[in-house]
Amino acid sequence: MARDFLTSVQAQYGLPVSTRAMGMVQLVVSELVTNARKYAPGPCLLDLEIVEGAVEISVWDSSTTLPSIEAADPERIGRHGLEITMAVSQTFCVHREPVGKRITAVIELADDPGGNPAGRQPS
Questions:
Q1: Distance separating alpha carbons of residues 114 and 54, to the nearest angstrom
Q2: How far apart, in Å, do the first and last CA atoms of the chain sit?
Q3: Could you give the CA distance from residue 83 to residue 2 in angstroms, rounded to a whole number?
Q4: In the predicted model, what is the mean pLDDT of the chain?
Q5: What number of other Cβ atoms are within 10 A of residue 55's Cβ?
Q6: 3-state SS of the chain?
Q7: Which of left, alpha, beta for 83 (phi over 0: left; psi -120 to 50: alpha)?
Q8: Are residues 41 and 101 in contact, defined by beta-carbon separation less than 8 angstroms?
Q9: DSSP-assigned beta bridge partners for residue 103
Q10: CA–CA separation, 57 vs 22, rounded Å?
């Protein structure tokens, strides 16, 4: 679904979508929707929106439990999804909703003209 959305953005609106952005959006959508389906007791909603040259990925689920991001541990098997999502996203935030929560991540559509991949820059 994410790939089809970005392909239509390219075709219909002529917006550039880098290969990196295509892969990162698919990865983030997969991680966020998988977590919503795995940990929330009810339905979930996915929204993809283009905002100022980036795709805003928003996933709502019915669980009031906020995600916990564990400290980096290269020996831990599994449970790296949110860690990876935060690393590849330009922004990442969690908002409580009247029912459940909404997690939003933003991925730039095009890489920097100098060749640097878009995303969260190291501090």
A1: 18
A2: 33
A3: 20
A4: 88
A5: 25
A6: CHHHHHHHHHHHHCCCCCHHHHHHHHHHHHHHHHHHHHHCCCCEEEEEEEECCEEEEEEEECCCCCCCCCCCCCCCCCCCHHHHHHHHCCEEEEEECCCCEEEEEEEECCCCCCCCCCCCCCC
A7: alpha
A8: no
A9: 59, 94
A10: 13
CA distance 68 to 58: 18
The identity of residue 2, as a single letter, is A
The string of pLDDT tens digits covering residues 46-98 is 999 999 999 999 999 999 999 887 777 788 787 778 888 999 999 999 999 99
What tokens were used for 77? 């098997």
Q: Residue 71: what residue type? A: A
